[in-house]
Amino acid sequence: MTISRRLLLGLFLLLPSAVAAQNFPAKPIKLIVPFPAGGPNDIIARVIGQRMSELSGQPVLIDNRGGQGGVLGTDAVSKAPPDGYTIAISSAGALAISPSMEKVAYDTQTDLTPVTLVATVPEMLVVATNVEAKNIGELIALAKAQPGKLNFASSGPGSLPHLAGELFKLTAGIDIVHVPYRGAAPAVNDLLGQQVQMTFLDLPVLLPQVKAGALKPIAIGSAERAPTAPDVPTLSEAGFPNLRVENWYGMVAPKGTPKDIVTALHALATKAMADPAVKEKLAAQGATLVGDAPEHFRSFIADETTKWAKVIKDAGVETTK
Which has the closest alpha carbon to 117: 248, 260, 308, 284? Predict the structure, then answer.
């Protein structure tokens, strides 16, 4: 076969993918949310999915598949046809933490195709109103004066709030006791009831109680102060630049999704995220939109996986792997 014929054959084989990408999306897109309706992951997916639908002229259908901290829904997208019509917006837990905590049926790096990091949401450190600390220095001093006496609540073993607390322990050199709950709501309830002394949770979960004066804010884990809580210092400002704790949500597709389709999905998602109304709605939820390139998102997932795996090991967190 001559070189020219080989080139023509190569172009012929690439043509269907190019045509598919040019016409994408040509039918409804299923957007899996690996958590029940009403939570931060669901809200972010619905706001962005609605705008993607308006821009593309095709429905973006939300499919809530909660279970196992986001693992079940993330696994579902890893096994979907790689045509761009089944995608997910998943979380830090399912993409970067659970693979180090338990046996999962997918490999984040090989069974999923990153599309874009959608949004970050800072974790906020708060204390009960009866805790005699107004800032992180006073809180650490209190913990060091009473080793093993102060408790921190989380939304469950291996959750981001749990590991944020463990990272705080390691970084500050303190002994505080983890108390896991089945979700954020019961953890907040016991914090309000002063059954536990502190917690790290997503900013939007805690903000209503902070504004009502029912909980005392200590710091947030983002690089900059949150517009919804401008008076709360960052952990970096408080003297802990390495104590960066943010939840995050990213769009992924199944492995093998053609690059042209990934490019089309990325363009559609980031265009939706750039809409001022979308930004405003999600800013009210404490979310900062990102919209990075697929290659950068892949590296980000790898870095986050390494970071939290080290915390799990150094803190001696029990795993089921």
Answer: 248
pTM of the model: 0.89
**Nearest-angstrom CA–CA distance, 105 and 179:** 28
Residues 228/284, Cβ–Cβ less than 8 Å: yes
**Which candidate, 116, 60, 70, places its Cα nearest to that of 96?**
70
The backbone torsions φ and ψ at residue 270, rounded to the nearest 5 degrees and listed phi first, read -70, -30
**Nearest-angstrom CA–CA distance, 124 and 168:** 12
Q: Give per-residue pLDDT as tens, 87-131.
A: 999 999 999 999 999 999 999 999 999 999 999 999 999 999 999
Digit-coded pLDDT (tens) for 18-69? 555 678 999 999 999 999 898 889 999 999 999 999 999 999 999 999 988 8
Give which of 194, 239, 47, 207 is closest to 121, Cα–Cα. Answer: 207
Residues 6+ away with beta carbon under 8 Å from 167: 243, 245, 311, 315
User: Whole-angstrom Cα distance, residue 203 to residue 122?
Assistant: 6
